Amino acid sequence: MLQANREFKLRAKKQLHGKWLEAAILSLIAWLLTTAGGGVVETAQYVWQNGVLTSVPASQPSFTGTSNLLSLILGGPIALGVAGYFIKLIRSEGPIIEDLFGGFKFFFKAFVLNIMITIFTILWTLLLIIPGIIASLRYSMAYFIMTDNPQLSAFEALNQSKQMMTGFKGKLFRLWLSFLGWFLLGIITLGIGFLWVLPYYNTAKANFYQDLKDNLNIVN
User: Fold this and answer.
1) Main-chain phi, psi angles of 3, to 5 degrees
2) Cα→Cα distances 130→5, 18, 70, 76, 118, Å
3) Which among 29, 78, 121, 199 has most CB atoms closer than 10 A?
4) Phi-psi region of 63 (alpha: psi -120 to 50; beta: other; left: phi over 0)
5) Does the residue 11 lie in any domain?
6) Residue 150 covered by a domain
7) How many domains does the chain fold into?
8) What would the pLDDT profile of 42-52 be if each residue is shown by its tens digit?
9) How far is 18 from 84, CA to CA, in rounded Å?
10) What's the pTM?
11) How far apart are CA 148 and CA 91, in angstroms?
């Protein structure tokens, strides 16, 4: 049985002790590389997808502007690096800021994964907002899965995430909602608040993944 979401958050605070500044710097670098100058919509999406922008603006399904171009090219590898850092953090494996760039070792796979998540999320969002949110939740574990299984293709990582999240999308959504006030504060403070909340959220989400993986008895 999965832990309560509050346990993921409590665990995250303990795991971030002594690492919060480093995790904040990593989150800032990830943001600068993928979303700087992108505006409020991109910032909102930034906090939704593993601390980096991995989808185009919700208002229009087109790649426009420097922010979207950076997201398209760098979003996947950076998201994979972010996932790798926080997985190491919760497993006490000595994460370092340089782990952010670990995703570039698998650039093509991460790039394709980013494109696939973007396309699928956009297609579902074209129907209604709610299906788009469900799609985002469905694929939310893909970068963690690829971190643990770099031999997988982008399609295999997506498929495993889809299977893994069956019956658990609502729980992850409630975890995200529990951070909503902090996300809004981050936007109001022009991003400053994100330096505190993004490490917290990403660590809690990594704990969610680890607990789900353990409960489903998934072996790397």
Assistant:
1) -65, 160
2) 22, 38, 27, 24, 15
3) 78
4) beta
5) yes
6) yes
7) 1
8) 555 555 555 54
9) 18
10) 0.84
11) 12
